[in-house]
Write a structure and sequence with these properties.
This protein is of the alpha/beta class. It is built from three helices and nine strands, in the order ααβαββββββββ. It has a five-stranded mixed beta sheet with strand order 2-1-5-6-7, covered by helices on one side. It has a two-stranded antiparallel ribbon with strand order 3-4. The protein has a two-stranded antiparallel sheet with strand order 8-9. The longest helix is centred in the first third of the chain and has 39 residues.
Length: about 210
C-alpha cells in the first residue's frame, strides 16, 4: 500500500513538473510572438498622404454640417506664388495639388457632402490603351450643374515639404466659410529625393546613409 502511494505521488509530481515546464516555455515564447506582431506594423515615421489629408479634412469640415441641397466642387491646389500648376517643378511633392483634389473629394463624400465631378465627359472615351469618363478638354465635358461651394487651396513649397492652406468658399458671395492649414512632409511620396528645386534652381542632395 505504501509503495502504491509513493508511485502515485511520484507520478503527480512528474505531471506537475511537465505542466510547469510547459508554462515556462510558453512564457519564453511570448516575447517572440510580440516581436513578430510589431514587425508587421507599418513604419509610421514618415506618415502617408491619406492620413495627412484626413487630418486636414477634419479641421476643414469641423464646423460644417452636410446639407442635401448644397453641392461642392473640389479643384486642384496650386502654388501660392503663381496660382497655376507648374509641370516643370522638380519637387518631391510636385503632384500634391492633384492628390489633394482627389483626396478631399473622397473625404467630403465620406462625410455626407455632395461633391460634383465637373470633369465628367458626355460619353465614355475609348482608346487603344484605356477607357475613361474624365477629361480636362472643355469641349468633351458635360454641362456643369449648380455649384454652391468650392473646395480649393494653395501650396507653399519648402525644402522639407509643403504648407497646405485649404478653404471652402461660397460660390455666390465668395465668402470663406471654412479654412485649415497643415504641413505635408516631403517624404510622403518618396523617402529619399536626390534632386530638389529651390527658386527655379536644381539642387542635388547626397544620401548620408
Amino acid at each position: 500500500m505504501t509503495i502504491f502511494v509513493q508511485r502515485k505521488a511520484t507520478q503527480i509530481i512528474g505531471l506537475l513538473g511537465i505542466l510547469l515546464l510547459g508554462n515556462a516555455g510558453g512564457c519564453s515564447s511570448a516575447p517572440d510572438n510580440i516581436e513578430l506582431i510589431n514587425e508587421q506594423v507599418p513604419d509610421a515615421a514618415l506618415g502617408n498622404v491619406e492620413y495627412h489629408t484626413y487630418v486636414l479634412a477634419n479641421e476643414l469640415f469641423a464646423n460644417l454640417r452636410p446639407v442635401r441641397q448644397s453641392r461642392y466642387a473640389v479643384t486642384g491646389f496650386v502654388p501660392v506664388d503663381s496660382l497655376a500648376y507648374n509641370e516643370n517643378l522638380q519637387h518631391p511633392l510636385q503632384l500634391l495639388g492633384h492628390q489633394l483634389q482627389e483626396g478631399l473629394l473622397t473625404e467630403a463624400t465620406k462625410r455626407g457632402f455632395t461633391a460634383q465631378e465637373f470633369r465628367l465627359t458626355q460619353d465614355i472615351i475609348v482608346s487603344d490603351r484605356s477607357d475613361r469618363v474624365l477629361s480636362r478638354d472643355i469641349e468633351l465635358l458635360t454641362a456643369m450643374g449648380r455649384i454652391d461651394y468650392f473646395i480649393t487651396g494653395t501650396l507653399v513649397h519648402q525644402e522639407a515639404g509643403a504648407i497646405v492652406n485649404a478653404r471652402i468658399i461660397d460660390a455666390q458671395t465668395r465668402d470663406v466659410v471654412a479654412a485649415a492649414t497643415r504641413f505635408f512632409p516631403a517624404e510622403l511620396f518618396w523617402q529619399t529625393e536626390q534632386v530638389t528645386s529651390r527658386n527655379g534652381r536644381l539642387y542635388r542632395t547626397e544620401n548620408k546613409g
